[in-house]
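Archive entry. Fields below.
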Amino acid sequence: MPELPEVETARRGIAPHLLAQRVREVVVRERRLRWPVPLLLEQALPGARITAVERRAKYLLLRAGYGSVIIHLGMSGSLRVVPASTTPGPHDHVDIVLVDGNALRLRDPRRFGAVLFTHNNPLTHRLLASLGPEPLSDAFNGAYLRGQARARRVAIKPLLMNSHIVAGVGNIYANEALFCAGIHPHRRASRIALARYNRLAVAVKQVLGSAIAAGGTTLRDFTASDGSPGLFRVCLHVYGRGGAPCPCCAQPIRRTLTRQRATYYCPHCQR
DNA sequence: AATCGCGCCTGACGGC
DNA sequence: TGCCGTCAGGCGCGAT
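PREDICTED_STRUCTURE:
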């Protein structure tokens, strides 16, 4: 499932193929993604030159001409650059065909993803405008987290996964960062001291950073844009390891459901 | 305002 | 072997 490191890996993989390229046409085979793919995409994009490939949270932004494409990979989305003549598979929903004969191809079996187009600054788009700071930026730190947590009643894990607090920390990395910081995922966010928030912020950056360096986490069907699997899976300490021994104390990792999401932690190491 | 549950969707997996 | 129920989950949205 694409989380921030996977989206960043995809961005780095596709950017060299897209930058400075002109769009020849857009082919939409399935319009029913999370939101319908707008006709505007096919109308406005052809002829435009792609000037930047950016990421904000888990959104990819293709700056092109007088507008931007906003792409979200949802649960099962992936992007490949292929020769435009390559026969599309059943879940290859959108092609952005370039003048050089290649196409950026979105595949998304579960169709939780999105492809949108806006003429305005995409950062002011409804979906992006109220996102919290990037977790790898300086704005995200222990003091910031402590300030956000002070007046809230939620547990730390859902706080960490709230995109309005910090953008792009999903379930896998929330579990891993809390383990690294030794914080129990069910602990009330308002009852964690600044020193521990400092540790947590460092853990979030470290976990995301090393996952990006390794090319994303391989879980289920994630692959990088060149098709190679990410290499981070071996580095997961708790996620998906319910019942297995904790790498620190060897006691069994516990798995619970929080807000309909699998939560993994070591009851001995995390308080 | 904060928080919680829902629903979108399909592939993988396990049980019978 | 094959069928079918269950689970997985990002995240916006509506309800509380």
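CURATOR_NOTE: DSSP finds six helices and ten strands in chain A.
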